[in-house]
């Protein structure tokens, strides 16, 4: 590779270890020609500005809530994605060779799959050992002879690349089953191009959009049905998968529908998506689910993630599955030593991109070679069913190597030996900012860390197109030789430099292309269910915050409980609602009450409690992440950050500040819902959930706060505050709170957005607008239920109800509120049974 004589002056302490190829600096300490432009751009920024730019990139990642779920990580499901500010740069000349090699490799692997699941000439002619195929759990016998659209088994291929000390690129592993990481590469690009816009423009970095556009168009073209708009779904294992963020992100970016196994069904050998408007045909399934889990009927019987009958639908040619079922067989490292010969046989070409030297121990000569040189080898399981970490022979004692050798002799076909590589290194901005903290000149530095590049090739018209970039993964420390995201490693953006100007590209269709449409029938029952509960949990959170805020604001002003009747009324009601322990209702100490309220507000194990409810809100939002706008998700993420910061509240005054902030954040989410969401069925279910929850909680809290006997006066202003109607009451009456006008505002006035009548009126409009069977009787059950509740509220004589309470007969008002709450619960069950679980027929 060509080099310049320019010195790296900005960060003089950057020193490659000399044992491995460094991507930025040569062994003589000179900048490599391809890396010089970005090095100079970073140098011109200086330490303080570079740290600020890194913080900006990581803020983008935090705001977008980009996560990679590492099992066992103390940060649980919220481990933020780690991105370094210094990109990996590959020049146009080096890239052209890599690009050709990656495209050839994808063609080769696709041809191998076609043979193994077809004629099996490679096995008959002994070009591949039968034991390598039939003993491999990745070989799915039910998929032999399976029809694949256009003859393509491999739609997306990923190769893990590393450099040898002399600068040669080698393939460490092939990912052919459900290649992951392309979405993270795209997010890295967005974050870094925004943080380093000048360098990105001046370095003439190739864009990623053409790759994704070609991939999407190829999938559309592979649909078995002749239709102008095939339905493509992305099948995910669900939110607990480590790369679920990427599944949702790519589904939204590519305009695919994100589905789980339960969203799909097979009828008459065709795949359908279960939506609130009935079954909708599916043409292409882009799966992120491992092969064997995809069909519990023919593959793995204990799978609850797949779709029963999916194999038969593929066998009948009614659906395209990308990648084709059974493609995971090629992920075994035991395949690598056979690829050069297979490339000559199947493609008539020499393999352009070599693999790391590998020996499969299922062959006598190769087995003995591995055992003889075990001290130089990395021993890995040949097949995925043996879940064990690679063994580095150099790190073993003589006795330990003997034990490994005995294992290999006992089960030779289950092991491979690979040459131990000194992975190439690249500069990583380390120090405070590397730990996610903004740093300005406080010891931040560049240090070399081992890297592995994951490159991608996707099927396109006439062959494969290679992503001009990729996901560069980085070791956790400068001394580590293991690069693994599961082990906590970081990542880099990968910049492929163009040899000329780079034109902007978009995935969107050209202007004037698509026909006007206002219909969308991709709302699955599961998503509708989750949107419904998103609305309910959002309202439940707001209700809890408003109740706690009303109590806390009185607590901070109280000298004693005896002299604060409104606080005492609030505490009794919160104890009745299980928001405070029962003993809080009899507390006489302000300090003790403050401690109980802070514990109830912030404790993780409180049910119902604010932290627990906000956690449920965030979880259900995560399930429909691909349906939420960036603004909506950032608001919900801010809620999460607010509560994490709120755990340090030591006084009621601190809690009040936190509660005010959360109320404003929830109001922002409500505003996005009200002003920005398209008025489709998804919005209807979300808003219906909110209205139903608000009505039910209002009826419940009014019942709890109005004492069965005695004066109601102490509860009235807190009730108005919880119902956000204090200002309306003052403006209308300019008088002390009185029961009849307060209840009129909160229950019967349908012009008040938080009144019970308003919720029922809005809920009636939503259930009237939901899809229904053309032959179903009218009104539907939920329509009849809501209409009955609304009629009861409208017919209620608030003045008479209050007069009865004053006369010692609270039962009529209590009965009205109880029946309303019970009726709303029945509405929820009816919606769930018909639209979400389809458990009951449509009856009036």
What does this 3D model show about the protein?
The protein has 844 residues and is an alpha+beta fold. The strands form five sheets. Strands 3, 4, 5, 17, 18, 19, 20 and 21 form an eight-stranded mixed sheet that branches. The protein starts with a strand and ends in an 8-residue tail after the last helix.
Shape: elongated
E-strand count = 21
Number of helices: 26
Question: Could you say which structural class the secondary elements and strand pairing correspond to?
Answer: alpha+beta
The share of residues in extended strands comes to 5-15%
Largest sheet: 8 strands, mixed
Task: Summarize the amount of helix as a percent range.
Answer: 40-55%
* N-C termini distance: 77 Å
